[in-house]
Every structure is written in structure tokens, then in C-alpha cells.
Amino acid sequence: MRVFDVFIQEQKVVSCIDIFARVGANRPLVISDLKTFVDGDEGLSIRVEGVVGSPIVCGISIRKDSPSNSGEVELPELMGVPQMQECGIKESDDCEVARELQKLQRDYEFQKKELAETKRVLEVLKRDNQLKSRECKEAWKSLQDLQNELMRKSMHVGSLAFAIEGQVKEKSRWFSSLRDLTRKLKIMKMEHIKLSEDALAYKKCLVDINEMGSTIQSTISHQVNLHEDLKIKFTEGAKERKELYNKVLELKGNIRVFCRCRPLNTEEIASGASMTIDFESARDGELTVKSNGAPRKTFRFDAVFGPQADQVDVFQDTAPFATSVLDGYNVCIFAYGQTGTGKTFTMEGTEEARGVNFRTLEELFRIIKERQKLFRYDISVSVLEVYNEHLRDLLVSGTQPGAAAKRLEIRQVGEGVHHVPGLVEAHVNNMSEVWEVLQTGSNARAVGSTNANEHSSRSHCIHCVMVKGENLLNGECTRSKLWLVDLAGSERVAKTEVQGERLKETQNINRSLSALGDVISALATKSPHIPFRNSKLTHLLQDSLGGDSKTLMFIQISPNESDLSETLCSLNFASRVRGIELGPAKKQLDTTELLKYKQTVEKTKQDIKSKDCAN
Ligand SMILES: Nc1ncnc2c1ncn2[C@@H]1O[C@H](COP(=O)(O)OP(=O)(O)OP(=O)(O)O)[C@@H](O)[C@H]1O
Predict the structure, then answer these.
(1) Ligand 1: does its nearest atom lie under 6 Å from the Cβ of 559?
(2) Where in the chain is the domain with CATH 3.40.850.10?
(3) Global pTM value
(4) Which end of the chain is more exposed for a tag (fewer CB within 10 A), N or C?
């Protein structure tokens, strides 16, 4: 774009000149002193080749080539005319020659004069020439000045042209943006019209929406009132259900006694042991003990579970107590019986056949999940044992059974409120956390003793589940406790014939079991005095025994005839515990009352369900 050739008279006089390299941007380049020959009226042609775009030729100055000399002509020096003698001409010859010579002399004189004249003219001309030369030089100088001026002007014109060109471009850009803007304005105007139409439509819509809003508002307030009504009705219904459910349990008995008889074990079968229990008659809760094949005594229970009954069967009758705990009632579940009759099997069970402890907690969490929209529950668990009338916290690691452990005391902190300061209460949210706590307790019990089985038979193992409930509808709060107690073995002193430390242990066990029997019996007979303070165990459970509280006792027995006296002891204990509450006279009343309440409960359940749906 910036490199080009110049041709004059079709002859390249400038080759590949780089204008930018020479003068830079926007500045004119002067190419001078190019020579050519113009013949006659042939004309002068100047051509630039290789340019791109529209460069400007600011001007062309043409001048005639000046001659190298000033025009003075050098003439040869004139020589003098030769004499006749010198020419070898003889006198004799020649007046002719003399005349010729004279003529030549005259010519010579004449030419000499002419020459002098010419010289003079030449001198004049020379002076004229010098004058003209000077004038010419001055003219040349002013011409050069003019040329420079012209060049400057041209440059100025060039830069002006360049600026104008820029302005023209700018202007065309402006025009095109103006065109764009006009087009956009047109579109915007159209959009504005459309938006105005839309706005109008929306305005109309808004009126409709406002109307709809007020309708919805009134519907909502109506629904809220309805909801509030339903909430009240639901709360009342739930309360009614709770009361009815409790009534049903009360009618069944706040103190209930189940009997569970373990199967004969392999050694007993191998030794051909005979059975002392007649399970045929046990179906209605009556249990007949035979001796040497003949019926000896009959006992009555709320339920009897024979050797065939599995953990699921047993738990079916225990599950309602879980509901009671979440309804805010205290519940105590005990397993009583001599060593090896299955107390731990009933309460703890095995990994394949979980016992009451695990299943009750599982049921608690199931109901909590079921009720989660209406109630919030907070569950914590403590595990402790009573050994030789001392309390030991099994969730505190490193404690030894008995005296070596940190002494725990039972303190009364309010009317009918007892508390064990310092007892660990592990907060649990689900079954896996519960299981971890139960395992920790079991391990601590095993680790703390020299002979785990011996020790576990001689201490009461207690799990306490503390439940804090909050009704999300009316903010009502409940606090209740579920005690799960695997009692120490109920061997008689006479049978074991023990002495020393073991005798003390046995006496302590018997004293506390007897105190428990006394308390439950006093509660069952509604005695004015309940001897809670006679043992650590009853003192500890004081708040959860009697009143609205529910008590369930599993009497564990062995079917082996050789254990007959121990079995009878346990069954007598059961009779004492059952008291008169579920005597034969009451049973008649129970059936009709129960039926009536069962119907009411069913109806209430359906009411609650339909209210739930409505909500
Ligand atoms: N209903 C049952 N079905 C099957 N096995 C049982 C049953 N009850 C007890 N057993 C078995 O009998 C044995 C003794 O049971 P368990 O240890 O529960 O008795 P215990 O009364 O707790 O004894 P201890 O007082 O020594 O703790 C265990 O091996 C247990 O698995």
C-alpha cells in the first residue's frame, strides 16, 4: 500500500519507494530532480504504479533543464597576417601579389574592426547575460520559495483532505448508527404499543386477581378457623384416645403379671427330666403345677407363655406399654425368677431373638416416627445395677461392682420426684444409638465382675428410658420413665447354703426382692402405706410405681420337676404381687367393661383417623 514505482515517459525513474519509511504517516514526500526529454509536442506522461487506496499527488513542478555553461563561446585566438617575403614571393612577380596583399590587409583591418566591434557587443552581451543570470537566479530562488510554499500548502491540503476523509467516514458511521437507532426506535415503539396493550390486559387481570385474592383470603381464614377447630377437636380426640387407652390398660390392670416358662434345656432332656407344669390348662392364664404327675396347685396370671412361646409372642402383650410411656405414663417391666429361668433371655434376649428391652425401645421409636407431625420426643437412656444395696452407673467406664464404684445416691428433689445426681443419661435418637448404649451397659456389667454369670445373677440390672414429650399442637409437655429391670436370681438361702460374702449377697437379694413384692402388693391392695424405702431398688423406682404408672412383671419359671420348690416360691411371689386387683370377682366386670371400652376405643381411633385425613 505504501511502496510504489514512478514512470516518466514510460521509463521507470523511481523503483519501489517506501513512502512511509521515508516520511512517516500523513506527511508528503517530495521527489525532485527527475529528468526526461520531451520532443516537440509529444506531451509529458507521469505514471505511478503499485499504489493501493487513494493517495494524493500534491503537485508537480516542471522546469526546463538549465545548460551547464553560461552561453559564453570560446573563440580561438586570431593569428597576425604574414609578410610577402616571409611567403617567398618575389618583387618581381608582383604588383599583383602586392595588391592582393594590400587587399588582404584591408580585409584584415576590416575584420579586425569587426572583431573589436563584435568583442564590444560580446562584452555588452556578457554583461547583459550576467545581469540576466542574476535575475534568473533570483527568479529561481523565488520560484523555489514558491515551490516550498506550494509544497507546504499541498501538505496542508493533504492533511485537510485526510481529516475531511476521516470526517466523512465518521459522518457515514454516524449516519449508519442513526439509521440503526431509527430502526430500533421503530421496534421499541412497536414494543411499547404491545406492552401498553399487555399492561392494559394485566390491569384487567389484576382486578380479577385481587378479587380472587380476597376470595382466597376469606377461604383461608375460613380454613384456618376450620383448622383451629379441627386442631382443638383433634387434641381433644387424642386426649380422649389416651385416656381411653389408659382406661383399657387400667381395666386390664395397672399391675400385670405374666408367667413365662422356659423349655427344658438339653441336659435336662438328656437326664430325662419330668415336667411340673400343665400347659394344656395354661391358655386362659391359669397355670397348674403338678408333682409326680398329679395337679398340686393352680395359679392365675394375666398371661402365661409356655416353652413354645417365642420373643414375638411375649412382646405382643408388652407392646402396649410403649404407647403408655409416650402418652406420659411411667412404666416398670421386671423379670423375676431363680437363676437360669430365662430372665435375661426375656429382657435382653439374644442377637437372633431380641428381648423385651430392645423390642420396647424399637416400638418407642416406631411410634415416635408415627407421631412426628404431632409430637416431639426427647429420649435418653441410663444403665445401672443394684448390687449389695449399692447403685452402680454402668455407663461410667472403669467402675467396679459394689463399693469400689462411685457411690450413687437417690435424692428427693420435689414432691414425688426422686433423682440420682451424677447418673449418666445418654441422649439417643435412633435404635442404633440405643443399641450402642445397651451394649456399653452390658459390657460394663461383664467387665466389672470376676465371674460375669455369677455377678449378673446377683445384681439387679436396670435400664431407665427417660421420655420428654411435647405436643406440637398445644405445647403440652410430658415427662415419663420406662424402667426395664432384670432382677437378681431369687434363690433361697436354705437351698444354696452359702456363707460369708455370698450369704450377705443372697440376703441383700432376698431383702430387696421381698421389699419389691411388699411394695407391689401394697400398691395392688391400695394400702395407705407403701414401704418404698425398704430397699434401694424400690426407693429408686418409687416415682414409677403406683398411681397411674403401669407395672409388668414376668415371673420366670423352670418346667423341671427338680426345680419344683423354687418354681412354687416364684409362683407364690407372683400371687402376692398380683394381690386382689385381678381376683375372680373383678374378672366378670372386666369382660363387659373391656368390651364397651374396646368399642369406644375403636370408634375414637376411626374419629382420629378421619380428622387426620381432614387436617
Ligand atoms: N424361653 C426360652 N427359650 C429358649 N431358651 C431359653 C428361654 N429362656 C431361657 N433360655 C435359655 O436358658 C439359659 C438361661 O437363661 P438366662 O441366662 O436368661 O437366665 P437368667 O434367669 O437370666 O439367669 P441369671 O439369673 O443367672 O442371669 C440361657 O441359655 C437361655 O438362652
Answers:
(1) no
(2) 319-554
(3) 0.61
(4) N
